[in-house]
Amino acid sequence: MSSAAPPVQITGSDEAPIDLEERVALALRLIDAVCDGDDRLVKVLVNDEHADCWIQDAQGWTALHAAAHTGSVEHIKLLLRKGNAVWSIPDNLGCTAGDIAYSMNNTAAYEELLAEGVRAEMLRAVLEAANSSDDSEAGDEDAEMGVTEGTADAVSNDVPEEQKLSTASDNATFLASRLVFTHDSRGQPIALDAEGNGVMMGWESGIMQATARRMCESAWADRGGRKWDELVKEEDEGEREPLRVMNVGFGLGIIDTFLQEYHPTQHLIIEPHPDVLAFARSNGWFDDRPGVRFYEGTWKQYLKDLEAGKEEYVGWDGVYFDTYSEHYADLHAFFQTLPDLLSTSPNARFSFFHGLGATSRLLYDVYTTVSELHLREIGLATEWSEVEVGEEGVGRWEATGAGTDGKRAGKDDDADGAKKPRTQGEGEKKYWREDMVGRYRLPLCRLEC
Ligand SMILES: C[S@@+](CC[C@H](N)C(=O)[O-])C[C@H]1O[C@@H](n2cnc3c(N)ncnc32)[C@H](O)[C@@H]1O
């Protein structure tokens, strides 16, 4: 017969066992001491008692959240440098310590947490890059299999439920899953993945329009309203510069529609998803659009084909990157290829969709800085401009009830899977929190001479 399990024993710094309850109690005392501004006790708990700085209280706060709230830079430094505080832990409302400091106007505390986030993410990128070559090869092959062999059903049927990866965070899983193209209740077009996550939403149209303009208007504005063949004739006669653009990730074709306003000489669209390609086909993108060509595969496959001589080196004047279910490490890897992809024209520009960490002010600031630093490392200077996205309903998608795998997207099903009635706004997931982030930051990058 079994008796009640003994308390979990862990080993403290003095090697004496401490039980879990004691450890939690110590961490909660630390949070209180930080809130009370009790410097002496905070130091004792961190330096001598080795209280865990990452343990969360009932509202999800760690000692770092408490220090961000009081604005004590001294406590923040102590918790990060002498304790084991983690800068990115969100509380129950999704706020990191940095978000608390920002909302309290504790500027010095915010700066300290931002610097910690940037340091940690730069280090993480170095470690990921060092470990990635084997993983990315394997991942890429998975993606290729999903796309070229159209194995969506085979993949989803053969893999046990508990081992399935999410369509939102695993590219191969996404590429092997089915998509739905529909409209939300506000009439905005949306593309949903098999779990009901928004792949692309009409509300991003303003961002896409502003991006296409920023990329093209300085050097190619006079192409608007002209005919493609007239423009190409003028290019052939040496009277004007050609415009060659590449877009990675078609989605709803929004940015491609705006890029078409400049009648690019060449317009390459890299898109691997069979359902997106079918959507593009049904919207006339494969019919006689001068200069437009689709590469039907992932950008990693495209780069391999480029290296193998199966694709021609072009020298693109505009490159845009906006994929789905990839990670910052993938975007970072794409950055490295830009010196080879961009043309030598002083007008050549690169941009990407910057939704990185867009549910937190701190994370958004960290990724703005980290991406700019990584671009600078490969010789690209970045200018940021802001785009307003804050109208009502923006930044959300409305779950439509079922993903393409027949499962409910939201968390609001009954245990037996029965669907509950939904009111407007209910069950909406956010990946953009305008209350936290404010305006969208549009990056525009150019190669420095
Ligand atoms: C957010 S949508 C792009 C939306 C687009 N910017 C627009 O204006 O409509 C992302 C697209 O990237 C595609 N995608 C996902 N993984 C990709 C990959 N590895 N290489 C290229 N495209 C990819 C998806 O199929 C999807 O069409």
Strand order, main sheet: write it out. Answer: 8-7-6-9-10
The secondary-structure class comes to alpha/beta
Give the oligomeric state: single chain
CATH superfamily of the largest domain: Vaccinia Virus protein VP39
Radius of gyration, in angstroms, nearest whole number: 25 Å
Q: CATH topology of the largest domain, what is it called?
A: Rossmann fold
Order of helices and strands: EEHHHHHHHHEEEHHEHEHEHEHEHEEEHE
CATH architecture annotation name of the largest domain: 3-Layer(aba) Sandwich
Enumerate the distinct ligands. Answer: S-adenosylmethionine
First CA to last CA: what distance? 76 Å
Question: How many DSSP E strands?
Answer: 14
Q: What is the helix fraction of residues, given as a range?
A: 40-55%
Number of helices: 16
* Mass-distribution shape: elongated
Class of the largest domain, according to the CATH hierarchy? Alpha Beta
Uncertain runs with pLDDT below 50, 5 residues or more?
Answer: 1-9, 137-157, 392-428
Overall pLDDT confidence: 84
Pfam families: Ank_2
Region (Disordered): 395-429
ANK repeats: 59-83
Keywords: ANK repeat, Methyltransferase, S-adenosyl-L-methionine, Transferase
Describe it.
Helix content is 42%, strand content 13%. The chain has 449 residues and is an alpha/beta fold. It has helices spanning 20-36, 39-48, 63-70, 73-81, 97-103, 107-148, 152-158, 171-175, 205-220, 228-236, 254-260, 274-282, 299-307, 328-341, 361-377, 434-437; strands at 9-11, 17-19, 180-183, 189-192, 198-201, 244-248, 266-270, 292-295, 318-321, 349-352, 380-387, 396-397, 429-430, 440-447. The longest helix has 42 residues, at 107-148. Helix 4 (73-81) packs across helix 6 (107-148) and helix 6 crosses helix 15. The chain is elongated, with a radius of gyration of 25 Å. The structure holds S-adenosylmethionine. S-adenosylmethionine is lined by residues 171, 199-200, 208, 248-255, 270-273, 276, 298-299, 322-324, 326.
